[in-house]
Specification:
alpha/beta, Spore Coat Polysaccharide Biosynthesis Protein SpsA, Chain A, four-stranded mixed sheet, transmembrane, five-stranded mixed sheet, 2 domains, globular, Nucleotide-diphossugar_trans, glycosyltransferase activity
Amino acid sequence: MVQKYPSISVVIPCLNGRNTIGNLLKSIYSQQYQGKIEVIATDDGSTDGTSDYLRKSWPTVKLIKFAKTQGSAPALNAAAKKSTGNYILATNDDVTFDKNAFIALVDCYQSQQKVGITTGKMLDSKDQFAIPGFRINHYLGYHPYDLKDKNKIRQCDWAVGACLFIKKDLFKKINGFDEGFIFCGEEYDLAFRIRQFGLKVLYTPKAIFYHSFNRNLNPNKETLFAHYRGKIRYMFKNGRIDHLLIFLPLQLLAIPFLYIFQGKIINIYALYRAFIWNLINLPKTLNTKNRVYGIPTPKI
C-alpha cells in the first residue's frame, strides 16, 4: 500500500487530439488517488482546435502551445519543466486510465529500492494485452520480446511511453527526454539511460490503462520516417558494435527485400531516408551520447 501520497504531474503531448484528450482527462480526474494531481498539456502544433477545446472545457489544465510541431520529446520536456509535482507521469492524448492506476504506480515505485521508472498494464480498445514485450533485443533495434509474468510485478528493459512514471528530480538529473527523437524512441532511450545508472524499470499489472492507438492505424511516409529515424538513432546512440553489425545489414538489406515482396515501397523510401538523415546527424547523436553519459550517477 502507498505509504504517502506524493504529488503527481501528468504531462501530455497533444497533436490533433481534440477528439480523444477529453476521455483521458476524465480518467485522470476520476482517480482514487488522495495526493495532488496537476495536468500539463503541450499542444504540439495542432490544427483541430485542441487548444481552444482545452481552454474552454478543461480550464484547470495548464496549457503550453507550440506554433509548429516539435515532436513528443520536446513537448514532454516543456511540460515537465512547468510541473510542480514530486513525480511525473508521461502519457499520450489517446489513453485512459483505470481509476486505481495512479495508486498502483506509486505503490510499485515505493515497494522496492533503486526504482527509476514504473509503468503499467496496457490494454487496447478490445481489452487485449498490448505491450509487445518486456525486454529488448538490440540486435533487431529496440525490438521488444518476452511476455512472461505479465500478471506480476517484474523488471523490464523499457517503459511504454503512454505510461511512464518517474520522480521529477531524477527526470531532471538525467536531462529528461532526448529531443533528437521525433515521436519514436524517446521512451526506449530514457529507460536505457535509467538502467545504465543501475536503476530499475518496473512493470505493475495493477496500473491498468487503455490505449486506442488512433495514430498508428494508417501510417504515412512521414510517420514511417519518424519511426525509422528514431529506431536507427537509438541504435547509433545506445547500441554496441556487435549490435550494429547485425542490425544495420538486417535493416538496410534484408528488411527492404521483404518489403518489396509485400509491396511496401513507401516503407523502403522512409527507411533509407531515415538512414541518410542519421548519417548526416551522426556527429550530433554521438555528441549527445557523450554529454548524457558524462553526468554523475543520479542519487535517489
